[in-house]
């Protein structure tokens, strides 16, 4: 995993148990079946075969056998293959391949609750709220609302509207809530954005009514 616009680290997982000299190895990375991302040709960096979008964006750490992909973008997501060939009696022989799956993450903004009504709140009338969060990736799982009054807290799931920017590929999400205005008791309403198991949950500032 890599954060958007940060450096992604992709490992070859090459033990080099034979302690082979890099001058006898050809190391290249490719994305999918066609795009060459990086090539070290018998100890020298080689740029002739690189896909244009990776030029000046990669560095190979030959001690750790790890490729650094600079300024990772959403379009860089996908499967990468590291292939190592050994110069054996003149004809190169593949001695190691490994695959790496890159996921790119962009942080969502803190969810924010907004009033959709103007005017004074009256008991037993309906209250319309929206909760929004923007600029994140990948697409979140869902948005839930938490309503707390006195000693009771309950959750509500409402439809989450999702839009994706055509250029940046980042997502914006919004959910709307329509509930009756509580009477004579302080009520706190929060909105939670669920980003999946490893990324956790973002919580809005509670709205007190």
From TrEMBL:
Gene Ontology biological-process entries: cell surface receptor signaling pathway; cellular response to lipopolysaccharide; immune response; negative regulation of T cell proliferation; positive regulation of T cell proliferation; T cell costimulation
Intracellular or extracellular location(s): Cell membrane
Key words, A-Z: Cell membrane, Disulfide bond, Glycoprotein, Immunoglobulin domain, Membrane, Receptor, Signal, Transmembrane, Transmembrane helix
Name used for this protein in its record: CD86 protein
Pfam families found in the cross-reference section: C2-set_2 (PF08205)
Keyword match Lyase: no
UniProt cross-references to PANTHER family, sorted A to Z: T-LYMPHOCYTE ACTIVATION ANTIGEN, T-LYMPHOCYTE ACTIVATION ANTIGEN CD86
Membrane topology: Single-pass type I membrane protein
Stored InterPro entries: CD80_C2-set, Ig-like_dom, Ig-like_dom_sf, Ig-like_fold, T-cell_Activation_Regulation
GO cellular component: external side of plasma membrane
Record-annotated Ig-like domain positions: 1-98, 111-191
């Amino acid at each position: 995993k890599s954060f958007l616009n940060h450096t992604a680290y992709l490992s070859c997982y090459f033990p080099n148990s034979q302690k082979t000299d890099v001058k006898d190895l050809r190391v290249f990375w490719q994305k999918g079946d066609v795009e060459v991302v990086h090539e070290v040709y018998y100890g020298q960096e080689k740029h002739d075969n690189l896909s244009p979008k990776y030029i000046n964006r990669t560095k190979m750490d030959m001690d750790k056998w790890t490729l650094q992909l600079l300024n990772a973008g959403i379009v860089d997501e996908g499967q990468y293959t590291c292939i190592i060939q050994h110069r054996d009696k003149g004809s190169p022989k593949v001695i190691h391949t490994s695959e790496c799956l890159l996921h790119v993450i962009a942080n969502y903004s803190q969810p924010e609750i907004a009033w959709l009504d103007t005017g004074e709140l009256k008991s037993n009338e309906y209250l319309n709220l929206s909760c929004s969060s923007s600029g994140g990736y990948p697409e979140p799982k869902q948005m839930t609302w938490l309503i707390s009054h006195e000693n009771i807290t309950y959750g509500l799931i409402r439809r989450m509207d999702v839009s994706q920017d055509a250029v940046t590929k980042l997502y914006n999400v919004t959910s709307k809530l329509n509930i009756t205005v509580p009477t004579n008791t302080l009520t706190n309403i929060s909105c939670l954005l669920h980003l999946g198991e490893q990324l956790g949950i973002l919580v809005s500032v509670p709205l007190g009514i």
